Amino acid sequence: MLRTHRRLLAVGTSSLLLLGMAACSGTTKENSSDTGTGAQAAASADPNAKLKEGLKIAYLPKQLNNPYSDVETSGGKVAVGELKGEYKLVGPNDASASSQVSYINTLIQQQQDVIVVAANDPNAVCPSLNQARAAKIKVVSFDSDASKACRDVFINQATTQGIGESLVKMASEQAGGSGEIAILSATPNATNQNAWIDVMKEELKKPEYSKLKLVKTAYGNDDDQKSFQEAQGLLQSYPNLKVIVSPTTVGIAAASRYVSSSSYKGKVAITGLGLPNQMRQYVKDGTVKKFALWNPADIGYLAAYAGAALASGQITGKEGEKFTAGKLGEYTIGVDGEIVLGPPTEFTAANIDQFNF
Amino acid sequence: MSELKKRLTSWDSIIVLLTLAVLVVASLAVPNFGTSRNFTFLVLDLLPIALVALPMTFIVVTGEIDLSVASTLGLCSAIMGVLWNNNMSIESIIPLCMVIGAVLGAVNGFLVTGLGLPSLAVTIGTLALYRGLAFVVLGDSAVADFPYSYTNWVTGTIGGGAVPNVLIVLVVLALIFGIVLHATPFGRSLFAIGANDQAAHFSGIRVARTKFWLYVLSGAVAGLVGVLWTLRYSSARADNGSGLELAVVAAVLLGGVSIFGGKGSLPGVLAGVVLLAALQNALRLQDVSGQALNIVTGALLVLSVLLPNIATAIRANWQRRRLRQAAAR
Predict the structure, then answer these.
(1) What is the pTM of this model?
(2) ipTM of this complex > 0.90?
(3) Is B41 in contact with A98 (Cβ distance < 8 A)?
């Protein structure tokens, strides 16, 4: 028994080693050039095509029951109603990369006309989105883009550059131009947040921000409790911290809640991207002076019109094509199929009561 | 009670029949369920659970458990990403990942058999440990640029039909595991260990060594599934497969394997995997929300533990009454 075990082990390991050696000349990152594309046959756009009625438009946000994506999809619901289509909202309970794939597969099976998706991972959803497109389903990404090889258009809430700049500008205003700042982000691999943080880091190198020092980027995983604890941790580790910038609605609300109920209130400023309804009390009690956001409902709204325009053949996703998105007016598709919603709105005690979302 | 009747009323045949019933009903009642494309999706969804469930069945049959499988999967996925980024060839990464999985399993095996620690505690510990290491290895980034020929094979089907390529892997491994468990002395020794490991020890079965190798096997399979998972989602990430261990244990228990060891069958387990996956798939096609899906899975699991116990109690009661009547006569 013992001997056979040893022999088996020896044969096993040596064959593995052989396999390994034989494979040294195999497919590596540097020499692999095969990439898949699932592009549909290029159809030509007919700008005068009428928007179809009865389109089945399904929304797949990063996860369900997230207040921010709830507002986004509520805008979608309104637009689908205007378009006389069928609105559907599905999504996973957790924001993991793989959990969206089963939902995309289900939507393919249900023969939807348009899938509006906020990708948890730009690549993990790619094979299924391409299967969807092969099944003549139009794919609109919003909020967090999928790889551009596997969607038709992307609804960008604002340019990455613009958001990064405005975040640094607000942080600098709150810090009075100098001091330590920290970032409280969402998940460490969130596409949006990472892109904005990269821009922020570039911005901070500029001479006018030379007295601002970014001491740490913490991750609250878009989980209220974790964000709360991370905010607490930041303030304890960096006693001289002046501003926490949180480019996520969950993070900014949790950080504000912590600061407003602690002795740091009035000493440490919170700013970033937040929802007016969640932030109202902190703006009113003075914890937060200013924060920004685009109107998320407009993103969902624009996505529905873009999807309908795609499904009706008005646009195909090429740069320069134009379509009209109901009350929002006319939009032009930019580079790489991106459609930019517009500049973010800044909220202060003076204007916050005009917004309800 | 005749042998045939006994076999038909055993939990694992009930679960096989129940699974077939669910498949038939879903095909008839749920639009788009019985299509060939949905079959492909269903197989791709259940594959990781089914593969990990094979060695898990062996381990649970011996009365132990391995809860670290999903973290082993995640760690292998993370290592795969790092090696790929360092320009190692995919052909050597894949066997290497299985070896790493086996080593991780060997650590579990050593702690359980070498030091005699309870497997539940050990593998809960390594569940956290391996997942933590995965984040140390790859951090929070994702590696995505795996070669298309490989990712496409994993998501693709044989000849572009309905049968996914990866089903071959599952069928081959399931056959091997099934034959080993049900038709070899080694397989019988696993049941003996689970029924009473002292007695098994005294009848000449090397209990500790057998269990050790089962953990190595479990780790290696988890490593392989880590590779398949990474290629399927073309994304090597430290959080890949989190929570998978619960789905696997659920399927194994639902399939009629006793958590106390000594009882169970591989066909039952595979039926359990298919039952859970098919139910989820069908309910999702009917637009049932994710939370409700969790409720269904949880309820099934409780029932799978509860019903056989009730059945045994009823049967024992019935037998006792019959004996009493016979004695009275």
Answers:
(1) 0.78
(2) no
(3) no
* Contact status of A19 with chain B (Cβ, < 8 Å): yes
Residues of the domain holding A132: 56-157+296-342
Residue B4 falls inside a structural domain: no
Nearest chain B Cα distance for residue A200, angstroms = 19
Order of strands, sheet of A212-219, starting from the edge strand that comes earlier in the sequence: A212-219, A179-185, A241-246, A269-272
pLDDT in tens, A301-317: 999 999 999 999 999 99
Q: Does A44 touch chain B (CB under 8 A)?
A: no
Contacts of A105 in chain B (CB under 8 A): 38, 41, 45
The CATH number of whichever domain residue A310 belongs to comes to: 3.40.50.2300
Examine residue B12 and state whether it is found in any structural domain, yes or no: no
Domain contains A51: no
- Looking at the structure, tell me whether residues A221 and A241 fall in a common domain: yes
**For B181-191, what is each residue's pLDDT tens digit?**
999 999 999 99
* Banded pLDDT at A8 (limits 50, 70, 90): low
Is B142–A189 a contact, with Cβ atoms under 8 angstroms apart? yes
The pLDDT of residue A49? 84
Is pLDDT larger for residue A356 or for residue B193?
A: B193
